[in-house]
Structures are given as C-alpha cells and as structure tokens.
Amino acid sequence: MHGLKPASEAFFGKKVLFVLSGKEWQGLRQLMRPAFAVHNLSPMVEATSIKAKVFADVLSPYADSGRDVDVLLATSMYHLSAVSIASFHYELNCIEVRAEHLH
Description:
Elements: H1 4-12, H2 22-32, H3 38-65, H4 71-88, H5 94-97
Helix pairs in contact: 3-4
C-alpha cells in the first residue's frame, strides 16, 4: 500500500483531517481551526523550525553517504518531537535520541 492516505492512516489512525471527506472532514476541520489560527501559530513556528534543523542534521549523514534511511520512522520522530514541544512544551527528543534506529 502506497500513497498519502495509507501512510497517514498508518501513522495517525483513520481520523486524520487530510484523509477524511464529507461531514467527517468538515467536523474535524472546525474542531481544529482555533488551534491553527494565525495568532496561535507564531509560537509554534520557532519550535518546529528548531526540530526541522535537528531533523536535517540527523538525515545529512545519510544523504552524504548514500546509506539507506527509514524515512517513515525519521518523519514520525520529527513530527512527535515538533508537536510535543510546540503544542505541549514537553521535550520528547525523539529525533535526537533515536537517530541510530533510522537504518
């Protein structure tokens, strides 16, 4: 199974905004709208960009060497780290601590 929908459902479960449609999509979109209002995004930008830099630094040796990397795992760890710090102000350090598991 390939594509955005199967990958998203595997990572997030079946109730994900960008794989839903119809009334389910509208309901979840309305629920999530306040969290993504412009005034709420500003504090998240710095936290997610810091984690994006860490993510790039972790993946750089793989790109430089041509070694295989588990991109789904790496992306999952980035998302968990970024969301935990941006949304909950809690540092999981997923991408930093578990980088050795990417190959």
